[in-house]
Amino acid sequence: MNDRTLITYYSFTGNTESVANEIQALTGYDSAAIVEKRERKKDSMPLSALTAMLGLRSRLKPMDFKLLGYDRIILGCQVWAWHTTPPINSFISKADWRGKKVFLFITKGDDKVPQKVIDSISSRIRARGGDVVDTLSITTILGSVITPDIFREELRTWLTSNGLL
C-alpha cells in the first residue's frame, strides 16, 4: 500500500504520547505532537477539565495543518471530563481533513468507552471532508504513564485489522 500515514496526538499526562510512540515503533510512520503555545501546568487539571467542558480551543505551536503528503491520519486524543481537550478542538478546526482517512485512538481514565467524545470528533472531522474509519479506546492508569506492555496486543490487533501494520 502506498498510503502515507501520519501519527499526530496531544498528550498532557504522557499516556497518549506513550500509545503514539508505540504505534510509531511498530509501524515506522511519521509522528508529530500537537503542542500548545503556552504550556499547561500539571496541577491545573480542574481548570483544564472546565475548559474542555466549555469546548474551548488552545493556541497551538506551528505545525502542518494542511497534512500535505498524508493519506491517513492516526489521531490520538485524551478525554477530559468526558469532552475533547482544547488543543484537539483547535487542531480539528485548523486541519485540512479533505480526503483523509482518520483512525482515532482515545486515552481515558476509566473503563467506559467515551462514545460522545468519539461521535463529536468524528462528526467534526467528517464535516471538514475527512473519513473516520475506526476508533480504539485505551484505558490508562491515573497518576502514572501507561506502559506499552499493558496495551500492545490490543493496539497491534487494531492496527492490523485496519491495514496499518
From TrEMBL:
Boundaries of every Flavodoxin-like domain copy: 5-114
InterPro entries membership: Flavodoxin/NO_synth, Flavoprotein-like_sf
A molecular-function term among this protein's GO annotations: oxidoreductase activity, acting on NAD(P)H
Superkingdom classification of source: Bacteria
Pfam families assigned: Flavodoxin_4
Record-linked PANTHER family: EXPORTED PROTEIN-RELATED, FLAVODOXIN-LIKE DOMAIN-CONTAINING PROTEIN
Protein name: Flavodoxin-like domain-containing protein
Source organism (scientific name): Youngiibacter fragilis 232.1
